[in-house]
Prior knowledge:
Layout lengths: L1 E2 L4 E2 L1 H6 L4 H6 L10 E2 L6 H14 L6 H18 L3 H15 L7 H15 L1 H9 L36 E5 L9 H5 L16 E4 L4 H10 L5 E5 L16 H7 L3
Antiparallel strand pairs: 1-2, 1-3, 4-5, 4-6
Helix pairs in contact: 3-4, 3-6, 4-5, 4-6, 5-6, 5-7
Amino acid sequence: MCIRDSKWIDAATVNEAIVSRNSLDAVGGSLGAGAILPISQDTCPLGESLMVAKWLAEESAGQCGPCYLGLPAAARGLEDILNGGGPAALEAVKQVAKNVKRRGACSHPDGSAMFLESTIKAFTDDLAAHVLGNGCGRPVAGVLPLFEGGRAPTGIPGGGGEENGPSRQKIYVDWTLCRGHGLCADILPEVFQLGADGFPTVAQAQVPRFAEAKALRAVRRCPALALRIEDESPQAKAPSRNLPVLSQGRGRRALGR
C-alpha cells in the first residue's frame, strides 16, 4: 500500500498505476512532492494509519474547532477500532471525517479527512477483521517516518494519557535575538503571552506535555530564531539533529543569568 499527500491507495490500484501526475490523478491519488512509500503485509495498516492520524492531530495550529477538536477525535476513533470498539467506532470515524470537511480555517482538516476516508476505503479487509473480529493479528511496525528522531507522538491531544504527566521540556527566549514578532504567543498560548511592549512576558517556562509538539513548531517558526528547547527528562538521550537544544551553560549566558 502507498500513502501520497495524506492519502492511501490500495495495492490492486497501485499495481496498475504509473508514477505520473495524470496516472495518479486518474486513480484518486496525487504525485505531490514525488515521495512514494509502500508498506508491506508485515505491519497492521490500521495501526500505521493511527500513527498518521495522531501526527495530523498534533500538527494542528489549534485555531479552529475542526482541527482542535475534530482531528484528536478522529485519532481516538481509529484507536477505538483497534481496541475492539466494533461498528460503532467505525461509524464515529466516518462521522468525524464528514464533519471536519470544509469547516476549518485552513485546508489541514480537509486533508486529514481525505486521509481518514482513504484509510476506510483502502483497507476494507483489515477493517472487517478489526471491526467484526479479533483484529488482523499483525504488529504495528511503525514504518512511516513521521516523527522527530523516529519517536511516536506523545499522545492524542485531549485524549488523556501520557501527555498529562510531568513536563519534560523547558522553552527559552533569547532576548538578544527576539524582535517581538509575537508568533510564539499565537502558536503556544499555553506558555507565552505578550506584554504591553509586544514581547513575551517570560524568558523561560515549562512546556506542558500536551503542548510539546506546538512548542517545537514555535521554535522552528520563530522568524528571529530566538527560541530554544531543553529536554529535562532524566532519561534524556542524545538530542535529535532536528531538535534545537540549549545547553545549561549557553542558556545562562544567553539569558544573562
